[in-house]
Task: inverse folding
């Protein structure tokens, strides 16, 4: 070797490597420090909490309060799931339908993610009622801004004359109260093409004129249904009355 020099590679190999002491603030930049990898990690969300977040997040159909009501409902049975799969464009349930139950909130999230028109909500509500899950429809009714899209809690085709007496009295009494905007029994009579002379007579008689309007409706239209009455109430912007049906 020239001039007795030691090859650079050997000098580096023989040199003592200076490792930075722990917490040494003088450590030169670029030195690997394991402590820099100890980043805080937030707790992982459970799958159920993710569902709750998505179903009530921005752009969602359901508020947090309504979602909490969904959590209290019994799961859909395998048979109910099988019937509800048909309402999904994307068959997301997949293997979940193989003998397992499904939480109500999970299914509603799937339905929400594929809905194209809010009119589809009424079809869902009808299916739920046919499966005996009126409890789900009642919880959905708590979302007041969606009420007009859901239809009545009672079956759509149920005749008005089959209404429970207590329900009849509650509904007709509320409808008989004079509304400053005119959205009361008089507007319903107009929509049903009931002659003005009848309306004037009932105004003079007082005592629950809405009762007479509905009875006239039943006489003139033999198939006067709860679904049709619900639609009339939403057309009149009386969602408070539609919610009674």
Result:
């Amino acid at each position: 070797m020239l001039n007795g020099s030691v090859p650079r590679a050997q000098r580096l190999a023989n040199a003592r490597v200076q490792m930075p002491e722990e917490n040494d603030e003088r450590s030169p930049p670029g030195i690997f420090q394991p402590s820099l990898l100890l980043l805080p990690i937030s707790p992982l969300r459970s799958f159920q909490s993710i569902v709750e977040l998505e179903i009530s997040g921005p752009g969602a159909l359901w508020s947090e309060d309504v979602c909490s009501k969904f959590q209290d409902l019994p799961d859909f049975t395998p048979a109910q799931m099988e019937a509800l799969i048909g309402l999904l464009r994307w068959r997301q349930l997949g293997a979940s339908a193989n003998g397992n139950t499904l939480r109500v909130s999970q299914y509603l999230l799937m339905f929400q993610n594929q809905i194209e028109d809010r009119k589809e909500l009424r079809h869902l509500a009808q299916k739920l009622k046919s499966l005996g899950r009126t409890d789900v429809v009642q919880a959905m009714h708590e979302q007041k801004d969606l009420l007009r899209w859901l239809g009545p809690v009672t079956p759509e085709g149920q005749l008005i004359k089959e209404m429970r007496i207590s329900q009849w009295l509650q509904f007709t009494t509320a409808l008989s109260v004079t509304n400053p905007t005119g959205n009361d029994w008089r507007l319903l009579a107009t929509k049903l093409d009931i002659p003005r002379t009848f309306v004037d007579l009932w105004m003079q008689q007082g005592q629950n004129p809405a009762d007479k309007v509905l009875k006239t409706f039943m006489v003139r239209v033999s198939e006067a249904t709860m679904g049709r009455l619900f639609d009339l109430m939403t057309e009149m912007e009386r969602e408070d009355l539609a919610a009674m049906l």
Q: What stands out?
A: DSSP finds 14 helices and no strands in the chain. Residues 74 and 103 are 7 Å apart (CA to CA). The chain has a mean pLDDT of 78.
